[in-house]
Design brief:
By secondary structure, the protein is an all-alpha fold. Helices cover 76% and strands 0% of the residues. The chain has helices spanning 3-13, 18-46, 53-80, 97-110, 112-124, 127-158, 160-167. Helix 5 packs antiparallel against helix 6 (127-158).
């Protein structure tokens, strides 16, 4: 029996914990987020816009901190608002318009700690104030990410039947046909 067949059998017999699945989804998201940052940074440097190594490093740090908040929100929403997708149409997204409106309203709130870091740099004219607030925002984001992960996993365990029902409505891998 080929190795990949055994791997699929093991996965189906003993699937990984939801926390590992969400973590894997988050790591994949981070890879694409940072690929976008690298592409934009490369374009900026190729167009010779006045950007130095400090600004590039700041961009990578700020994007990482923002990603903590967005991934935490994504983990919760994956469980609270499940949506079946057709594998052929994944790029079109699966969120309902109602949920997209909710996310649109939550973006500014989720990114407020990073905004406050920029506000502190402007108000105090100090890079140290920016760094301190951004470090606090990163720590807060880490705690929020951990809480959101635990909440998503426990919510999925409590509402397993509802999740399966929602996901079986579509034409996805566990669709009813």
């Amino acid at each position: 029996m080929p190795f990949f067949v055994r791997a699929v059998q093991i996965y189906l017999a003993a699937p990984p914990p939801l926390s590992l699945t969400l973590l894997g989804k988050n790591i994949a998201s981070l890879v694409f987020i940072y690929l976008e940052v690298i592409i934009l940074t490369s374009l900026t440097l190729a167009l010779r816009v006045g950007v130095g190594p400090g600004e590039v490093a700041e961009t990578f740090l700020v994007v990482g901190v923002c990603a903590l908040y967005m991934l935490a929100l994504g983990n919760i929403s994956s469980v609270q608002y499940p949506r079946a997708l057709k594998p052929e149409r994944v790029s079109q997204g699966g969120a309902s318009s109602r949920f997209q409106a909710l996310i649109f309203l939550l973006y500014p709130v989720a990114l407020l700690p990073v905004f406050l870091a920029y506000l502190a740099r402007y108000a105090f004219n100090s890079q140290a104030a920016f760094a301190a607030i951004l470090a606090f925002a990163a720590a807060l984001g880490g705690v929020l990410y951990w809480i959101a992960m635990e909440s998503a996993v426990s919510s999925a365990a409590r509402h397993r039947e509802r999740l399966l029902g929602e996901l079986s409505q579509g034409e996805g891998p566990i669709g009813s046909g």
